[in-house]
Amino acid sequence: MSKQEVILCKELESSLTQAIEKCSPDRLFVLTDEHTHRLCLPQIKDIPVMRQAQEIVIGAEDVNKTLETLAQVWQALSQQGATRHSLLINLGGGMVTDLGGFAAATFKRGIAYINIPTTLLAMVDASVGGKTGINFNGLKNEIGAFAPANCVLLDTEFLRSLDAHNFFSGYAEMLKHGLISTPQHLDELLAFDTEQPDYVLLKNMVGRSVQVKEDIVEQDPKEHGIRKALNLGHTIGHAFESLALAESRPVLHGYAVAWGLVCELYLSHLQAGFPQDRMRQVIQFIKENYGPFPFTCKHYDHLYELMLHDKKNTAGVINFTLLKDVGEISLNQTADKDTIFETFDFFRECMGL
Ligand SMILES: NC(=O)c1ccc[n+]([C@@H]2O[C@H](COP(=O)([O-])OP(=O)(O)OC[C@H]3O[C@@H](n4cnc5c(N)ncnc54)[C@H](O)[C@@H]3O)[C@@H](O)[C@H]2O)c1
Ligand SMILES: O=C(O)C(=O)C[C@@H](O)[C@H](O)[C@H](O)COP(=O)(O)O
Ligand SMILES: [Zn+2]
């Protein structure tokens, strides 16, 4: 897999023009959800190279990251004359870049695509690294492919219209990048004024955060080893997210990751010696900014069953990425059912549930 080009744009217009010209497509398509169609497409629609772009609009948010929506995109591409030499631009958050990336990877066995992420989460994480896919059978990203975008164009100006919930959702993946990289990066994240964001500083932090991901993906594009570090917080986080979806009370992906981090930092403390003061510091930040995920001990078995579907697992054994300390990663860790249930008890207790 070749190294993916990720550009922190000074000027989106020229970067996008160059990126499209480099692909020399016969036809151009732009995929948005209903919100990014209204809020973000106007920023690029009038760029001369975009004038011929045919628009495909899908429903917003993870409830629409489905096979039905994927089929709508395939249908639109097919009916509007897309060929193997066409180019798809995904303009949106991680839902659009995941689903659009998978549509591009599968349409006529694969066409070129460019990601222009418009949420914080998609900028630092989802748009980069080639994991594409959809939710299926009540499970997160159950169907998908590794298929990197030809190019990823980051423009933090899009963040100005993002609401606080989606800001914090993306910030959870940044915290994850802080935890798996360096104490300095984690400290700057914990110290950032999230109530009145300094957008210049945020742009720099986005650059550092996405670099953490790029470095790991470059070493291990298909998650045979070190890429599992990017899944910290997700073994339990995805179970929370799927449970919430099943109970028709969906939560944002990054919130589920933040709550998953609380549990997996506790597990890291129990099993890998992660320092208690650091654990408490990060949990305090999450408690203050994300609130609790309500569940009772009646949910434990369901959560455990969901964790049995984690993609890192082998032969029915649940696989965790844990930390010995900030930046000291311990891959392929396991925990027995009693210990996992103890982490749920810990979570509920420290969240005041
Ligand atoms: N492929 C990966 O490596 C990877 C990594 C992390 C997360 N993900 C996936 O990403 C998805 C979550 O992505 P997300 O958090 O970006 O959510 P999202 O794409 O659902 O976007 C969240 C909301 O913000 C709106 N929005 C987008 N840009 C906006 C803007 N600039 N201003 C105002 N509103 C805007 C969207 O329309 C949507 O309503 C999940 O499906 C998750 O599984 C994938
Ligand atoms: O890029 C990766 O690798 C990640 O694990 C990043 C995660 O933040 C992301 O949510 C990813 O989609 C999870 O992948 P999955 O393989 O657990 O479905
Ligand atoms: Zn994630």
From TrEMBL:
Q: Where is the 3-dehydroquinate synthase C-terminal domain?
A: 170-313
Chain ranges passing through the membrane? none
- GO cellular component term, pick one: cytoplasm
A Pfam family annotated for this UniProt entry: DHQS_C
| Biological pathway | Metabolic intermediate biosynthesis; chorismate biosynthesis; chorismate from D-erythrose 4-phosphate and phosphoenolpyruvate: step 2/7
Q: Which InterPro entries match?
A: Dehydroquinate_synthase (IPR050071), DHQ_synth_AroB (IPR016037), DHQ_synth_fam (IPR030963), DHQS/DOIS_N (IPR030960), DHQS_C (IPR056179)
Which GO molecular function annotations are given, in alphabetical order? 3-dehydroquinate synthase activity; metal ion binding; nucleotide binding
The UniProt record lists the EC number as 4.2.3.4
Q: Start and end of every 3-dehydroquinate synthase N-terminal domain?
A: 56-167
- Tell me which cofactor or cofactors this protein depends on: Co(2+); NAD(+)
Provide the protein's localization: Cytoplasm
Choose any GO biological process term that the UniProt entry carries and state it.
chorismate biosynthetic process
Alphabetized, the UniProt keywords read: Amino-acid biosynthesis, Aromatic amino acid biosynthesis, Cobalt, Cytoplasm, Lyase, Metal-binding, NAD, Nucleotide-binding, Zinc
Q: Please list the reactions this protein catalyses.
A: 7-phospho-2-dehydro-3-deoxy-D-arabino-heptonate = 3-dehydroquinate + phosphate
Similarity remark: Belongs to the sugar phosphate cyclases superfamily. Dehydroquinate synthase family.
Q: Could you tell me which PANTHER family the record lists for this protein?
A: 3-DEHYDROQUINATE SYNTHASE (PTHR43622), 3-DEHYDROQUINATE SYNTHASE, CHLOROPLASTIC (PTHR43622:SF7)
The task this protein performs is described as: Catalyzes the conversion of 3-deoxy-D-arabino-heptulosonate 7-phosphate (DAHP) to dehydroquinate (DHQ).
Q: What is this protein called?
A: 3-dehydroquinate synthase
Provenance organism? Caecibacteroides pullorum
